[in-house]
Amino acid sequence: MQNFVLYNPTKIIFGKDTAKEIGPETAALGRKILLVYGKSSCKANGIHGQVLPSLTAAGLEIIEHGGVVSNPLLSHVRAGIGLARQHAVQAIVAVGGGSVIDSAKAIAAGTLVDHDVWQFFKAKKSIKKTLPLACVLTLAAAGSEMNGGMVLTNEETRQKFGVGNRLLCPRVSILDPTLTFTVPPDYTAYGAVDAIAHILEFYFTTRDPATPVQDRFMEGLVINIMASCDRVLRDPADYQGRADLMWSATLALNGWTAAGLGMVGFPMHMIEHSLSALYNIAHGAGLSIVMPAWMRHQARLRPGKFSQFGQRVFNLTGSDERCAMAGINRLEEWFVSVNSPTTLSQVGIAAADIPVIAENALALARIWRLNEYGKEVIMEILTACR
Amino acid sequence: MQNFVLYNPTKIIFGKDTAKEIGPETAALGRKILLVYGKSSCKANGIHGQVLPSLTAAGLEIIEHGGVVSNPLLSHVRAGIGLARQHAVQAIVAVGGGSVIDSAKAIAAGTLVDHDVWQFFKAKKSIKKTLPLACVLTLAAAGSEMNGGMVLTNEETRQKFGVGNRLLCPRVSILDPTLTFTVPPDYTAYGAVDAIAHILEFYFTTRDPATPVQDRFMEGLVINIMASCDRVLRDPADYQGRADLMWSATLALNGWTAAGLGMVGFPMHMIEHSLSALYNIAHGAGLSIVMPAWMRHQARLRPGKFSQFGQRVFNLTGSDERCAMAGINRLEEWFVSVNSPTTLSQVGIAAADIPVIAENALALARIWRLNEYGKEVIMEILTACR
Asked: What interface predicted TM-score (ipTM) does this complex get?
């Protein structure tokens, strides 16, 4: 186990009918708030159900800032910062999934500084203070509700950059699984894939060969994410399944699994970002394409951990090589079973495009200091995704 | 999964040579501190190694309050509160295991109120504020370093009571596994038994039949506690083993495993408290006596969860009844293998004493509202401990 510092001060309120607690929770943070939300799903269930009545009943002054899109945009964040300043809001409330919460984090950090918020993403400025943020989560996927990370796309420069800072941790996040009952099957599956990817990036990229406490935790989460996703695809209103999926997705990226792993990388996300940047495909869909190919590539280099994955997650037995490869096959078969794509051709990306995708990914590999990923390696992995 | 609120603001600094960070961490909390510690082990490795030099180098004014004993005493806490008031200390630093940290928590809460600190334990007063607390952990066992619980013994009334309050969470806890290299084999094993008991109390007493995310997490911890304890009993300076054991013991009782389980009880601790209250035996030693008997008693009532335990922790196969009973046997065999006692007679307690022990336990069962534990049930369990 590697040395680590763990500090996660987000208060989690989890469970049925908890969305209505957003009013009193927010009132403790400020009286004038900016309410950030997305397009369809929030309007449908998140805001007009329990959230807005609760905020209103708490006597809060609400400035609305809707319209966040997936792969959230810098321009929309800048507009939100303008609104927040104009009305001198004291707190931000985000109602939505990772895109909404990330936008709200950027507004919370950008409102209090004189410079443009993108300076944080370019690492030209560091975050020193933020407006307090309260979240109501409506999608089990990104994990942003309980961590200090945010990702934003600058549509002018075509850059999709991320920032991590403890001050970006929400003060409180309300996780009400009933708000995810209406998430359609495809986005339910993509969310599950995203959460599994967060776990496996850590699991397979740690260079520490002995992290048994963290390994068992991560293996258990992968098992439960697959099982709970299966349940809710059969019955979208299966509360138990929605609850297990929602909590597992939060745990996948709240720092608990990573504590003690030392340096980890995000190579699968690195390659996927180029897919969702260049083509209009969902992040989870891109990940289920990239993951099996990346895993097969890596399993040849270090079969031991992949064998452990196959043994413990899929109860496989036999040689390390067999368990490693069969484990990856089983995960890929699960992606197929939940209708998440596993080949580039399924989402209409031609083999001829691979060099361009690889070039784009290479730029990110350099920024993320994934030095072992040269263009040839990325090309090899992408070619295996056809 | 049941609704829950999770909020744990303790900052954890984990790893090799981290004890020296106590100075700067404490300086951020206050300049004048009360340093609380125990008898032997702290003097040997905790304080005079890295802790005291670090506190001194940070320019702190230190008031020493050593001499905490296992099953920490109210009188010693009262003396600490007197010192803290006399010197107007601004923060408390605890260097030790659960007894030291619990004493420090009680001093942190008791210094700021006009009434006697025992009022908190009698639930006559509630904790509204505390002095900030920083800990350096020297024993993997109790979990107090990352939770808001404390247990204290009132030697006048012969009561051993506990209190839970979020304000009792340490601001920062430093977990340096090298500080546990000198823990002798018996207390290493008792600490591991205590941590396993914390996990299994939750695991077996939740009334929610569907907590799969929490179950996998808890099963993984039990597996790792046994494995890491085995390692360090073979080689006390096995860093990896000490690190796994230390982090697992913290995770066993920091609220992460319990989130979503709903109401849980501490029946094994309830019975054990009477053993360590009436006889001078270590808490972990008492637990390894009580646990197998309690588990066999409960497994007859609800074999399903016990079967799952046997299957997943010990890879057993077969009928539910077989897996349940064989799993308990395997755990008991492990207790034997680490020289933790499994019968009352091993620690010199005669069968004739059982009615008196049961009477004492019954009083606690009533306080803890463990209503299904009448005297007959407790007698039956204790009789199986012979």
From this structure: 0.96
